[in-house]
Amino acid sequence: QEILKKYHDLFKLQWEGVIGNMCAPSQAEWEQLLTNCSAFLFYGMERFMSHVLLNWLVAMNIPKCRLVILLDLVRSQRSYQRIINSDICKSCPRIALERPTETAMLLSLTGVGSVIATQWYTSLEENADRLETLFENFLSFGKTTGQTVHVLQK
């Protein structure tokens, strides 16, 4: 929230979504957010695809969404227990589709133009640093997606 406040004045378009941990979005809310945005940011625990239904996502057509940023793969004891309980009901190939590369491919197939995603487990603090770098480079410096990813890689 601090980062959003810091860069609020640089936002040219309206931002909407769910902030905080008061409630998890329903599948209908995920769909509405993804289909009505030009950019989508997920900053959360575990794998992004563990929060949405695979069958629902692959049936979507979201070409208006030009950029998806997935700052996920953060693990806590509570989130790990949730994911373990969720994965019990899934097949190995289904779980494999939730990995970062496969998630990026699925989003690309739905029409998303670019995907920026973490590739391994990280901490909330490290993802906060990544978000700060993304916003600084996109909004303050006006860098392209490729230039910003290059900065993140350093």
Q: Could you walk me through the main structural features you see in this protein, from its secondary elements to its overall organization?
A:
Helix 7 (124-140) runs antiparallel to helix 8. The protein has helices at 2-6, 27-35, 54-58, 77-87, 92-96, 100-109, 124-140, 145-153, and strands spanning 39-45, 67-74, 114-117. It has one domain. The protein has 154 residues and is α/β, with parallel strands linked by helices. The chain has a 3-stranded parallel sheet with strand order 1-2-3, with helices on both faces.
Set down the secondary structure blueprint:
Layout: H1 2-6, H2 27-35, E1 39-45, H3 54-58, E2 67-74, H4 77-87, H5 92-96, H6 100-109, E3 114-117, H7 124-140, H8 145-153
Parallel strand pairs: 1-2, 2-3
Protein name: CFA46 protein
Organism: Bombycilla garrulus
InterPro entries: CFAP46
Which percent range fits the helix content? 40-55%
User: What fraction strand?
Assistant: 5-15%
Radius of gyration: 15 Å
Main beta-sheet strand count, sense and barrel state? 3 strands, parallel
Number of domains: 1
Number of DSSP-assigned strands:
3
Distance between the termini: 25 Å
Protein name: CFA46 protein
